[in-house]
Specification:
Blueprint (H helix, E strand, L loop, with lengths): L4 E2 L8 E2 L3 H27 L1 H8 L4 H35 L7 H12 L3 E3 L1 H4 L14 E3 L1 H49 L8 H22 L5 E3 L9 E3 L2 H58 E2 L11 H15 L3 H52 L6 H14 L4 E2 H19 L14
Helix pairs in contact: 1-3, 1-4, 1-6, 2-6, 3-4, 3-6, 6-7, 6-8, 7-8, 8-9, 8-10, 9-10, 10-11, 10-12, 11-12
Amino acid sequence: MGAGSSPSSTGGPPEPVMDRDEVDRALARLGAEHEAVETSLLALQDHAGRRLLEGADLTGVTKERWAATEQSITLLWGYFDAYSAALEATRELRSRRRWPGREDLVELTDRLRGESVTLSGAALHGAPTLAGGPAKLTERFTLAELVNRMNELYARSLDLVVAADTVWSALPARIDLLAAELHRTRGLAHSVGVRPGEHPSGDDLESITAELAELRAQVISDPLAFWVAAPGSSAPGGGRPDTGRYDRAARALEDVRREIDAVLTVRQDAEQRLARLRDVLSRADRTLAEARSARGEVLAKIAASEVPAVSGPSIALQEQLAAAAEYRRHSQWHRLSPLLESLEREAEDELLRARASLTAVTAPLAVRAELRGRLDAYKAKVARHGMAEDPFLIERYDAARRMLWSAPCDLRVAEEAVLRYQRAAADVLVPRNPGPVDQRGES
């Protein structure tokens, strides 16, 4: 051992002997670390999350990890007590002499830098090891190593406490708010007839109620099962609560609320919508009646024409309309809502079908009217050219007119007669068209 060295506790090269100033600076640093560790341990002891964990009926991963963490916290206090005793003994040695001698400095160096703290098996009993290896009967530490060991155990313990406390602070309150909203929604659903076994949304409400009750119980007993650690984060409690199940329940409740809002809307304007439906179906029935009447007229007045059959009013739609009125009378809004939506579509389709039927039935009459108009238009044109008294044209006109104004009218033959009159009129009128006039007005 050299004049300026102290023996190494680990069997390595001797440590340089510290001088008085180095000893005082080391003691000051270790004293500050002691104060910081003590403050942290007291804060952990008073942490709301730790108190909740101690009093909770834990299950699952939280129960397992908290049991290990409690041992770590017990070990932490054992480490701290040993650290405090070693630091106090070193301070007492330093305080013996204002100017410590060689032997004192050698001993102070050994205490400050060497493995001067020994923990027995009683202090280490049941304590988890950081490296995951087998537990030891005794362990020796330098003061610096002991501080590092306490910092590691503290960070790991605090991480668990903060994670559990964060989940407990976030999820139960949100679940309770959603449960209160669920309670209001169930009351509203009941008022409009949305009940379990009678409406899918009523069954959904029962399912959401059971899910929230189960979710809250699990969050309370096993909060760490709902914790997602942040990758690579070294800060205590680095991560976030897992809100996946809560979010799914919230979305399911929102879907039910939208369904109930739709039912409420039906309740508010049901009578108005029913009145519109009655009007649309009444117009469809009147149109079909007009089509049936027109079909009889067409069959009587038009010969050799294909006239489509006209169906009667839709009995099924009338029965559905009566059922809708019955649902409204008995406040069965959850049944009325989908029925009204389908009825509105089908009633509009029925009106369009009736109008198409009327158009198809009256098509021959429209053709006859067009031929009559064309015949009269050509007669007027002939009259404007002073040919109204032309015997040939009169004969052709009378033949076409008799066909168009007789019943039953053969449209094919009548159209040919009109065309003959048109051609005859064109033949007579073309030669009488004036030719070009020169500058003197001569043709």
